[in-house]
């Protein structure tokens, strides 16, 4: 069976950026920035993204394209032994994330609809509204199912006709909506104070915890360690430069996260809310603020449509990781794989949909959804990232260098290998230690 490839460079770049650009970029980046002192954090984040994020993404692209296989098959082909376990870590992490991510993504569909059906009103208690909705298991499952079905449909269509085509449609819409919301944000009365907080660094507030938070955000916002970039990399034609691609995808991902801050911070400072308020900021505080704005229903609908698209482009990448595996290793058809694995992810996600009040589902002393997030984000993803960089830096160095130099000499190749061998794995190990509470 001939392996699918991206039909165009722009299609691949938009697909990869879409995979990286998830819910975390829209709400988590502004939230982490707000909780860590604003502009000083942003500057540290940018430095880390380009010094560590780009090299790790390039490493994953190199593993994918040099093998032209899925996350497990890539390690099996390039070295074998125990190394395919690294691919399994990514596949399992991605599958777990997809299961609960689809629940939260379902909330964005509900809130998009509710923007026109009574949510955006000064008379609505948005805290009560959110709590009642998330504790309604059947509603959560219903919207989760809608989201998963859309994800399955895109992956079902294939790399070119599905993922690439829809990325070319969805990403420009996402960028347009984001720009409209930015224009609205910077026109608010409190915008200057919010922008000042966002862009004027105060390094007196920087601590080791700030740097660690920036390190974690840089790693997680780029969808690293879960096999997505290895899988997408396996579809890259030989004529596309991997170093340039890694830089462009990282830059676009970072730019979109930065723009999201121009939506959140002017709004937060105008209406006197805490910019480090987390998930509640998105589903509780912002709807009550939209209710105070002219044309609030429209702004609310656009915002939750933005969140939905960001979630969808990431979920497509998550599902594709496991679909590519069963296609390559088990000879399943793409259609069978997309339907079977998407349905399985939905079923595994049902306990997460029910764990917010319908029934009491606890694991490791946490709600089921939070436990799944902890397991994937704090343990599996960092482990995957550590071993991918070590694999490239120490085990397949010559193969990786040959792959990234196909389109011309990469002048930073020595620095890249050095980062993969030392700086990146050490940095990701610190993220791991912080995630499990040992740092």
UniProtKB/TrEMBL annotation:
Asked if Phosphoprotein is a keyword of the record, the answer is: no
UniProt GO molecular function: symporter activity
Q: Which family does it belong to?
A: Belongs to the sodium:neurotransmitter symporter (SNF) (TC 2.A.22) family.
One Pfam family linked to the record: SNF
What name does UniProt use for this protein?
A: Transporter
- InterPro entries, alphabetically? Na/ntran_symport, SNS_sf, YocR/YhdH-like
PROSITE patterns, sorted: NA_NEUROTRAN_SYMP_1, NA_NEUROTRAN_SYMP_3
Compartments annotated for it: namely:
Membrane
Signal peptide range in chain numbering: none
Q: Upper taxonomic classification of the species?
A: Archaea, Methanobacteriati, Methanobacteriota, Stenosarchaea group, Candidatus Methanofastidiosia
Entry superkingdom: Archaea
Q: Where are the transmembrane segments?
A: 38-64, 85-109, 141-159, 171-191, 211-233, 245-265, 298-326, 338-359, 379-396, 416-438
């Amino acid at each position: 069976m001939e392996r699918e490839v991206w039909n165009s460079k722009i299609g691949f770049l938009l697909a990869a950026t879409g995979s990286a650009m998830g819910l975390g970029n829209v709400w988590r980046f502004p939230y982490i920035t707000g909780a860590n002192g604003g502009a000083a954090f942003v500057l540290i984040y940018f430095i880390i993204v380009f010094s560590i994020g780009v090299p790790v993404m390039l490493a994953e692209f190199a593993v994918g394209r040099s093998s032209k296989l899925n996350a497990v098959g890539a390690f099996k082909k390039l070295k074998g032994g125990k190394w395919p376990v690294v691919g399994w870590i990514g596949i399992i992490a991605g599958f777990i994330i997809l299961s609960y991510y689809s629940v939260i993504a379902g909330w964005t569909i509900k809130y998009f609809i509710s923007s026109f059906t009574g949510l955006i009103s000064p008379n609505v208690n948005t805290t009560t509204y959110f709590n009642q909705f998330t504790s309604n298991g059947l509603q959560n499952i219903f919207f989760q199912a809608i989201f998963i079905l859309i994800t399955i449909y895109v992956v079902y269509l294939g790399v070119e006709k599905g993922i690439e085509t829809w990325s070319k449609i969805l990403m420009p819409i996402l960028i347009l909506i984001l720009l409209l919301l930015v224009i609205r944000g910077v026109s608010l009365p409190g915008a200057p104070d919010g922008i000042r907080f966002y862009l004027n660094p105060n390094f007196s507030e920087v601590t080791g915890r700030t740097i660690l938070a920036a390190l974690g955000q840089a790693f997680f916002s780029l969808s690293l360690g879960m096999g997505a970039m290895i899988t997408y990399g396996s579809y890259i034609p030989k004529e596309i430069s991997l170093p340039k691609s890694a830089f462009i995808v990282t830059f676009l991902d970072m730019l979109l996260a930065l723009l999201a801050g121009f939506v959140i911070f002017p709004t937060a400072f105008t209406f006197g809310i805490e910019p480090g308020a987390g998930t509640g900021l998105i589903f509780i505080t912002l709807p009550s603020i939209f209710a105070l704005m002219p044309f609030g229903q429209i702004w609310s609908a656009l915002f939750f449509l933005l969140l939905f698209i960001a979630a969808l482009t990431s979920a497509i990448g998550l599902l594709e990781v496991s679909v590519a595996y069963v296609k390559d290793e088990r000879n399943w058809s793409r259609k069978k794989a997309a339907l079977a694995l998407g349905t399985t992810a939905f079923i595994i996600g049902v306990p997460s949909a029910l764990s917010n009040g319908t029934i009491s589902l606890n694991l490791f002393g946490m709600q089921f959804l939070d436990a799944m997030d902890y397991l994937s984000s704090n343990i599996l993803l960092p482990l995957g990232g550590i071993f991918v960089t070590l694999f490239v830096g120490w085990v397949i160095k010559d193969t990786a260098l040959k792959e990234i130099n196909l389109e011309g000499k990469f002048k930073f190749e020595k620095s890249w290998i050095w980062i993969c061998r030392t700086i990146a794995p050490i940095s990701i190990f610190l993220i791991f230690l912080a995630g499990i509470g040992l740092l």
